[in-house]
Amino acid sequence: MCDQTFMAITFGPCDNCSTTSPLMNIYIKNEPTNYCSFCVEMMACQGLLKGETLASLKNESESLKKKLEEERAKLHDVELHQVAEKIEVVSALSIKTRRVLKGHGNKVLCMDWCKDKRRLVSSSQDGKVIVWDGFTLNKEHAVPMPCTWVMACAYAPSGCAIACGGLDNKCSVYPLSLDKNENLAAKKKSVAMHTNYLSGCTFTNSDMQILTSSGDGTCALWDVESGQLLQSFHGHTADVLSLDLAPSETGNTFVSGGCDKKANVWDMRSGQNVQSFETHESDINCVKYYPSGDAFASASDDATCRLYDLRADREVAVYQKDSIIFGVSSLDFSLSGRLLFGGYNDYTINIWDVLKGNRVSMLFGHENRVSTVKVSPDGTSVCSASWDNTLRIWA
Amino acid sequence: NTGRMARDMTDKEILKMELDQLKKEVSTPRTPVGANCQETISFVEGLAADDPLIKGVPDDKNPYKGDKGGCIIT
């Protein structure tokens, strides 16, 4: 499909990039030169000041998007499931509900595991944040928030604090006290301030910094102690719904996804958007890094989950089925990266074989949408949170 | 990139921002899918044997099997 046709009198190495291709005879500063069509386009994009209109910018954007697709397609030599044909299928899984956590008065919107692999924190539309012991079902702390719809919560790496927020547009940190009688709400520390709802939050490698995503279209990195904004990340053109930090061994990046159907990978230090993917057909509700750090997956209202390889810079797998028509709200990987757990709006959790691309199992039990799915830090169990006011632990 | 939010920008400024981003991304270094997928598969095969959700955990080692959490009263 050509976006322009021209008489190609010359064929040979481009004067700019040396690729052998049909060449356009052009004049640069009155000197006759031969550029390939790609370099002509790149050059045309450079001086975009005079005569820029909405239409001309749109055209440049469209042709660059096509170029990007072509560049990515050149390396698309094979599909992931084809390379995975030779490996054995996953043996039958024996995963069942082991715990049902009841206590929230309304939809549970988010949960996070503590590094000790047994405690977890959950937040709800009822404005409460609860810290549970997953083994004993004990509710260790219950914090009332000043707003309803607490959409995000996270456990600090030390296990000594939690962060949460939602419609209050803030992310607040609560230190967890061993004294059960202590009023946790009194020790609250407001860290992040956005201009729209808080959709996601996570501590970085320490208790000292928090990364947030917001309905205001931005992500931000904050210093917990001072509440200072350390870095902000701009690039999404609609609400950001989710973010995930790269596994610590693979460096300082994180991925975000949102209502603009884009998943963006960011450099935390520079604030730059280093890679961007737009293959979903609807809002991206959740993004999660692959255990190796070389890929990430996204869950969308378009009823699919997709895997993107960061080194190949493209989507390498789509997890979908004709019979699955409801949006996916959340996803997580098993320890080895072989299984992908997706929480769906049809109340089920589908388990996919990441490599072969087929569904291996389904988990039934929730009586309303599944809002969050997270595998425990040691990979022994999965916790799901639901609009049916409960959480379930499966193992 | 002046660091402003999308909703405060005009359509033209948003298009310019997207265009600048695309220009950067066209030159991102990339490697073939086949080789990367092979590495991913090797990564998984190295860990799959110890993936508790795949191979299961013996009842006596599984904190969730057995009593659905109770208190021990002494």
Offer a concise description of the structure.
Chain A has 395 residues and is mainly beta. Chain A has helices at 37-46, 54-74, 80-83; strands at residues 10-13, 20-28, 31-36, 97-102, 108-113, 119-124, 128-133, 139-144, 152-155, 161-165, 170-175, 189-193, 198-203, 209-214, 219-223, 229-233, 240-245, 253-258, 263-267, 273-277, 284-289, 295-300, 305-309, 314-319, 328-333, 339-344, 349-353, 359-363, 370-375, 382-386, 390-394.
Polypeptide structure, described:
Chain A is built from 3 helices and 31 strands. In chain A, strand 19 and strand 20 form a beta hairpin. Helices cover 9% and strands 44% of the residues of chain A. In chain A, the strands form 8 sheets. Chain A has a 4-stranded antiparallel β-sheet, with no helix packed on it. Chain A has a 4-stranded antiparallel β-sheet with strand order 5-6-7-8, with no helix packed on it. In chain A, strands 9-10-11-12 form a 4-stranded antiparallel β-sheet, with no helix packed on it. By secondary structure, chain B is mostly helical. Chain B is built from 3 helices and no strands.
Which stretches of chain B are poorly predicted, pLDDT < 50 over at least 5 residues? Answer: 68-74
The beta-strand count of chain A equals 31
The proportion of residues in beta strands of chain A is 35-45%
Profile the largest sheet of chain B. Answer: none
Q: Could you estimate the helical fraction of the residues of chain A in percent?
A: under 10%
Low-confidence blocks of residues of chain A? none
Helix/strand/pairing category of chain A: mainly beta
Count, helices of chain A? 3
Q: C-alpha Rg of chain B, in Å? A: 26 Å
User: How are the strands of the largest sheet of chain A arranged?
Assistant: 4-31-30-29
Tally of individual helices of chain B: 3
* Alpha carbon gap, first and last residue of chain A: 51 Å
Please give the oligomerization state of what you see.
Answer: heterodimer
Mean pLDDT of chain B: 80
Q: List how many beta strands of chain B DSSP finds.
A: 0
Q: Mean pLDDT score of chain A, rounded?
A: 91
Shape of chain A: globular
Instruction: Note the run of SSEs of chain B as H and E.
Output: HHH
